[in-house]
């Protein structure tokens, strides 16, 4: 009986640790606070930070989803993302903690409408390994480097992921994109490159 | 005659020396020789510019050196703006910009994808050559340069590699930090593309360079593999016209594209698709010239077709009836695997058409 009780205690402790997670506050202090930056400046800010906090990841996801972030604070961002099903309250992510790669992958898959394969649809929809399968789906699509779902997200990786996710959304038609340079749009019938004529002064498109 | 003192001599000598140098300088200004011509002034140069043709969402330009995180120093780009050397361009999320070189000789088009920071380090027409040096801090740039009467010398440099083009359109370079880059030439592209990878030590000293050339449809990453080695990482998506394919062709597509070959008794063993039928109406994929029926592929006379035994995980089918197979098919399998050396095997006792 004592042995059984000890075994139950060990399992309980293990489950407790697993449920809480291993993330913690970021020790790196940036020279400029991200809330003081515009959306474009925040985009460049991501290239300079070693690790990404949950608040920064939430802002990046809103910029990816809507093209801009008009939230007032972290609580506002969290509410928007959870309402739209992009993030989950069950994750219990803290504002200043470092975000994990799996959570970011899940949010990107939701925004880019990537449904994934059998495992992601079957088990992910039930909440079993949803972040894990989302990460593996993005790795398969070469949008992320090989990683594990509990690995911390770096600024450079998040920046690269946002670029590729944005390109994916443009290809999928999730937002209108009319500037392109490709074989299909910029070659004449003879296969020669089409050079647009001078336009002079014209109104800005989509600014 | 008064004797000249030493200080006086020095003063006079210095004065004479100064006068002589001044004469040389004036002469140099009036008639500059190659040694006295300022090094920064080329023989024949004309300014070039990039004209903004199309803009999508937030695109900003500033002089090189301005912090991309901050708003100060950046101005929004609009259609018709002219960008010159010494400026840098930044695109945000969902933003793109298309530029055209002016004058358009040779015709040059650039497009910056979203999330790009690019600097125009050098842009000038020097001695009949359109010279452009572009720095890519991060992001992706596509460009097309059509060779014309004026030769184009364009290089795009990211922190770990340099792209050099040889009369090329349309190419793409992407750098996503962490030392990873991707350079490619479009399928219908023209010319040759050279990727030069820079390897540096911790101090930033250049250790060595590696280069790869790319032809249309090829790409190179930081691994600097040959194009043929990159193919294995480039996924191929088969699009088959299921209504235009014949029965055998559909089976091959099913085997190769859907991974359902394990359901067949022989795995990926294609022996059942050889043209071994005795009926004139049946046609296999491989035509070995046996019974006069035609196949899609032809093997030379006397050449054996090698069967793949690994498709069924090497365990063999033996006497286990196949899921979709038949007795005749099993005999073909066993004969192909040389099982007919077992003379008492019931399947070998029945006669079948010998294989070539």
Overview of the molecule:
- The complex is a heterodimer of chains A (207) and B (356).
- The longest helix of chain A is centred in the first third of the chain and has 19 residues, at 2-20.
- Chain A has a domain at 38-169.
- Chain A contains 8 helices and no strands.
- In chain A, helix 3 (54-66) runs parallel beside helix 5, helix 3 (54-66) packs parallel to helix 8 (155-172) and helix 6 (118-125) packs antiparallel against helix 7.
- Chain A has 207 residues and is mostly helical.
- Chain A has helices at 2-20, 39-45, 54-66, 74-83, 101-111, 118-125, 130-140, 155-172.
- Chain A starts with a helix and ends in a 35-residue tail after the last helix.
- Residues 16-21 and 201-207 of chain A have low confidence and may be disordered.
- Chain B is of the alpha+beta class and 356 residues long.
- Helices cover 15% and strands 35% of the residues of chain B.
- In chain B, strand 9 and strand 10 form a beta hairpin.
- Chain B has 5 helices and 17 strands.
- Chain B folds into 2 domains: 45-233, Jelly Rolls; 247-349, no CATH class.
- Chain B is globular, with a radius of gyration of 36 Å.
- Chains A and B meet through helix 2 and helix 8 of A and strand 2, strand 7, strand 8, strand 10 and strand 13 of B.
Share in helix of chain A:
40-55%
Tally of helical runs of chain B:
5
Q: Number of helical segments of chain A?
A: 8
Provide the CATH topology of the largest domain in chain B. Jelly Rolls
Shape of chain B: globular
Terminal Cα separation of chain A, in Å? 71 Å
Unreliable stretches covering 5 or more consecutive residues of chain A? 16-21, 201-207
Percentage of residues assigned to helices of chain B:
10-25%
Structural class assignment of chain B:
alpha+beta
